[in-house]
Amino acid sequence: MRFVIVTGMSGAGKSTALKMLEDVGYFCVDNLPIPVIPALASLLSGANSEIDKLALGIDIRDERNFTELEEVLKKIDDTGFAYEVLFLEAGDDVLIKRYQETRRTHPIAGNERLDKGIELEREKLKFLKSKATYIVDTSKMLTRELKGELNKIFVENKEFKNLYITVLSFGFKYGIPNDADLVFNVRFLPNPYYIEELRPMSGNDSPVSEYVMKEPKAQEFLEKLKDMVTFLIPNYIIEGKNQLVIAIGCTGGKHRSVTLANELYQFLKQDDRYGVKVEHRDIERDSQGKVK
């Protein structure tokens, strides 16, 4: 039997994950009292059990018994019973925004501010995160993207590395993305903005991307960028990083940065050891005024 414990930060997507697992044939139980977990695992793993896939949702709502969880899991480990831990993560700012949008209260914040509740929850979940088989950071994910990642793990059974990469194009005139881990400036390349017929288009259009990439400096930059991220990504994985944002900027975020971001995305998506997506933050913004 495949036994998956689904846990993580409140607001990071546990309910969505359980629903997805239920849709692909898992018997799902949410918020079962922690002392009962060993008995459930033993019962459902018996020879007469017809259940071969079990997903158990655990979160901080059962705070009274949560302190027992570490000991409960140790007892299960001692029996040799195999289980996996899916830990859903998200940044504090993202969690706060989600709580504000849904107007929910944090399960353990009490009379404290929301950020204090999140800080306390992180501390209580630290041991569980250390046991995680998979850590999925949903900060930058749409629901369909989360389902796609879980499908890779639990349906396609692909090898999973706890890293999700976002390749992000942006315009420097609108500010550097505050969540970027790596920032690259491609304003040294010829600007399609000055070509009248290319100006209304974006890097998603072939005439623009071809114009940008025919420049030898663009080709050389792309090769050096590929070489750098090929070196960095395995080291980030070893370090335990689970979210990487690679930001590529030009002046307005419409032509050169979009082209290079798309090129890097096409390169990275060939490797299924990590999740990857491309976003163009400023592509729809009007570029008015003189572009330098």
From TrEMBL:
Source domain of life: Bacteria
Keywords recorded for this protein, A-Z: ATP-binding, GTP-binding, Nucleotide-binding
Record-level Gene Ontology MF annotations: ATP binding; GTP binding
Database matches in Pfam families: PapZ_C, RapZ-like_N
Keyword NAD part of the UniProt annotation: no
InterPro entries for this protein: P-loop_NTPase, RapZ-like, RapZ-like_N, RapZ_C
Record-annotated RapZ-like N-terminal domain positions: 1-157
RapZ C-terminal domain boundaries: 164-284
UniProt binding sites for GTP: 59-62
Residue sites binding ATP per the record: 8-15
Entries under PANTHER family matching the protein: RNASE ADAPTER PROTEIN RAPZ (PTHR30448)
HAMAP family assigned: RapZ_like
Protein name: Nucleotide-binding protein
The organism of origin for this protein: Faecalimonas umbilicata
